[in-house]
Amino acid sequence: MRCLKFLLLLLMPFSLMAQTKKYQPTWESIDSRPVPGWFENGKFGIFIHWGMYSVPAWAPKGVYAEWYQHWLQSKSLFGKGKFTGTEVADYHKKMFGENFSYYQFADQFKAESFEPDAWADLFKKSGARYVVLTSKHHEGFALWPSKEASKAFGRPWNAMDAGAKRDLLGDLTTAVKKTGLKMGYYYSLYEWYNPLYKQDVNSYVDNHMMPQLKELVNNYKPDIIWPDGEWDQTDTTWKSREFLSWLYNDSPVKDSIVVNDRWGKKARHKHGGYYTTEYEAGATFNKPWEECRGIGYSFGYNRNEDISDYNSPQTLVLMLTDIVSNGGNLLLDIGPDAHGKIPPIMQERLLQVGKWLDVNGEAIYDTRKWKQAVQWSAGDRNWKPKGGGYVGGDFILKQTVDPDPGFAVKEIFFTSKGKDVYAIVPRMPEGKLVIKNVTPATGTTVTMLGINKPLKWKQLKDGIEVAVPKLSVNEVPCEYAYTFKLTNVK
After folding, report:
1. Can you give the pTM of this predicted structure?
2. Do 318 and 406 belong to one domain?
3. What is the mean pLDDT of residues 6-23?
């Protein structure tokens, strides 16, 4: 009998064995859980910051507009630029009056033009593989019928009780899942001005935060839980380990759920699931990770931003490629307005990225880091953006197609899939492309994605030289970056 049991254990699929493991409320146990593979394969996701802050939708350029309430009440600012700190308070007084409370915006957050199926269709066309919606930001307003939210503030403070009179989160979840995309929720652990949080954080965690998180998981069955606002307390105070052990052992999504690393003060890049960066550049880790940023400098819609504040499609494509070559994902944010409309420029950018992915997605999805992420030209590789604050998207242009004098550029980005390597170039090569540190094998072929014919190549001492054909305008398969596929290389 013992031999039979041992044999059955050997024959059991790994996934079933993983399901039998019980995770303890310790970081050693929790961190041993692998990040489900669908996340690392997905590479590109859509972040959505949408809430009460979408009504005023204003901040100085370079500042997060979704922090409107905090800027208003604290009379302080942080971002990319120099500020007096009173800009939002001054704007609020001018536009709404000195006695207009932030909480009165709830009546104006009507989302009357919200069409969840249209949003989901746009996300699908963008080439994204997953979506993360702000279920609740630091202001505490919930996009689903959370009784805890309204109870805590003593007023209608969720989308069903206030303005929209609708389960916005539930409706979008249904629409997104119909398209086959994964659906996740950003959730702020702390709330700036929640009376219970300010009076008794332990009671807040037990009677407000935990019921909300478990309600999200049990009722909507997300693919991602994306906590934030963790820096105010330790993971012990947040009871993060207790929640994650429940999530991995007993929740309805215990085998498929993905989480990030924002579970307590100083927990980032140490504990949880995949690692996160935010408006940063040049990151790389030895485990799944994700860079999040807006198309502009704000996550929430900022009506103060102009066209020059938005990243170009070329910037977004090169940024995505740079991140994926380093083994990461890009979570690109959009900020709908209070009516439920995604600003046209944001729609356009998503469609432009999607059009590029239609041709080059093979070099992005399901890939992994190769032995080298990039091939550099000669010159100084240490270009750094000027000024403090968040790193704008233009850094990737300086590192590729618009370098400052004397600085090197990333000539080629690499990704891999089995024995195949993808070489993604920011400029269309003229006549030839030299790819260094590549060792071809018997049967190696070189093609360009979007052009279904093999290219001639020859072996060099330290790589290969590819003969790049002259293409007419109609023959060029895409814009912004071009992919050469090398099969069966060492």
Report:
1. 0.95
2. no
3. 56
Classify residue 281: in a domain, yes or no: yes
Q: How confident is the model at residue 14 (pLDDT cuts 50, 70, 90)?
A: very low
Half-sphere exposure of 150 (CA within 13 A, CB side): 15
* Number of domains composing the chain: 2
Q: Range of 460's domain?
A: 374-486
Mean pLDDT score of the chain: 94
Do 401 and 321 lie in one domain? The reply is no
| Residue found under tokens 């100083």 | 266
Question: How many residues does this entry show for the chain?
Answer: 490
d(CA 75, CA 487): 58
Tell me how far apart the alpha carbons of residues 134 and 188 are, in angstroms, rounded to a whole number. Answer: 8
Let me know: does 336 contact 92? Beta carbons within 8 Å. Answer: no
What stretch of H or E contains 396? helix 395-398
Judgement on whether residues 106 and 157 belong to the same structural domain of the protein: yes
Residue 461 within any structural domain of the chain:
yes
CA distances (Å), origin 125, targets 134, 185, 260, 478: 21, 21, 26, 16
* Residue type at 375 in one-letter notation: Q
How many C-alpha atoms does 422 have within 13 Å on its Cβ side?
A: 25
DSSP state of 418: T
Shared-domain flag, residues 357 and 384: no
